[in-house]
Amino acid sequence: MYSQAEPAGAWKPEYKNMYPYISFSDINNQQELDCIYHNLNENYYISDNWSPEMYDALAYSGFICVSAKDLFNNDYLIPEIQTSYAVLHWTNLHVSRRLRQHIKKMLLPDNAFFISINNDMNAVFEGIKQYHQKSNWLCNRYITLLKTMHRQANYKQKIISVELWHQHHLIGGEIGYLTGSIYTSLTGFLDKNNYSHFGKIQMIALADLLKNSGVSFWNMGHPYMQYKFDLGAREYSRLDFLNLWLKYRNKKIQGFLDTKKIKLLYYDLI
Fold first, then answer.
1. What are the domain boundaries of the chain?
2. Residue 184 to residue 219: CA distance in whole angstroms
3. Cα(74)–Cα(48) distance, rounded to whole angstroms?
4. How far apart are CA 124 and CA 176, in angstroms?
5. What angle do helix axes 199-212 and 97-107 make, rounded to 10 degrees?
6. Of 247, 220, 249, 246, which is closest to residue 233 (Cα–Cα)?
7. In this structure, are residues 170 and 115 in contact, taking their beta carbons and an 8 Å threshold?
8. pTM of the entire structure?
9. Segment 125-162, tens digit of pLDDT
């Protein structure tokens, strides 16, 4: 769970030529953007523009960005317009009988697990660094960009951190963003040494919180991980996803504010 998207690690300098360069003007030119959407031979692009405005325009247009370094330690944004997407609609959310039993076993005896939003974003970034270590694409420049956008309210994306707590100990979390009424996951972590079975519990708790906050659906990114489909995700082709994305990216939601810790209750998650 929380596997990292490719590409990762250092590039040879000539690898930069593998991906088309994408500019701010490309993203803001509807004709260019339509060409990108319909070119199914390309999914990864490259940019050295780390401005919040560039990131905001990419995310608003449906791109999910990772980052990579070349051998000279230069950081690049790698926006991806995926060939297909995993999407979780709340009506499809599935909690298996085995998982129900596991939730009951974990939560009922120890009623001290909580979820929160934007309670400790710095700790989540640190947890991601420690969890992914050398394979982490969330470089310091990317973290600075997301923190800048989080502090300011004039962007279309609302950057959020999700925290999972046991008592006062942070045991898991993720970073993502809201675009209108759509939530998109970027990356996350879990203390697998002590809470190895809590990955799906964390995701179900977040799904419950998103649903109750008026979020329309969860964009889970790449459709290559079975755990997403175990929870009920559906795979969309690029163009079908973009039709869905464009429908909801301007829809406002009410009430999804920074939260205090919300106790995880067994009966809420099953």
1. 10-83, 85-135+156-269
2. 5
3. 9
4. 11
5. 90
6. 220
7. no
8. 0.89
9. 999 999 888 778 999 999 999 999 999 889 999 999 99
Angle of helix 52-60 versus helix 140-151 axis, rounded to 10:
80
**C-alpha 190, offset from chain centre:** 15
Exposure string over 182-199, b if 16+ CB within 10 A, otherwise e: bbbbbbbbbbeeebeebb
Contact 244, 181 (CB under 8 A): no
**Residue 60 host element (H or E):** helix 52-60
Q: How far is CA 238 from the centre of its chain?
A: 17
CATH class in words for 85-135+156-269:
alpha beta
Q: Residues 5, 138: contact at Cβ < 8 Å?
A: no
- Count Cβ atoms below 10 Å from residue 145 Cβ, excluding itself: 21
Residue pLDDT, tens place only, 177-189 = 999 999 999 999 9
Please tell me whether the peptide bond between 7 and the residue prior to it is cis, using omega within 30 degrees of 0.
yes
Which tens digits make up the pLDDT trace of 2-19?
444 444 444 444 445 679
Contact 89, 217 (CB under 8 A): yes
Structure tokens, 89:
């609609």
Backbone dihedral angles phi then psi of residue 2, each to the nearest 5 degrees = 60, 45
**Helix or strand or coil: residue 13?**
helix
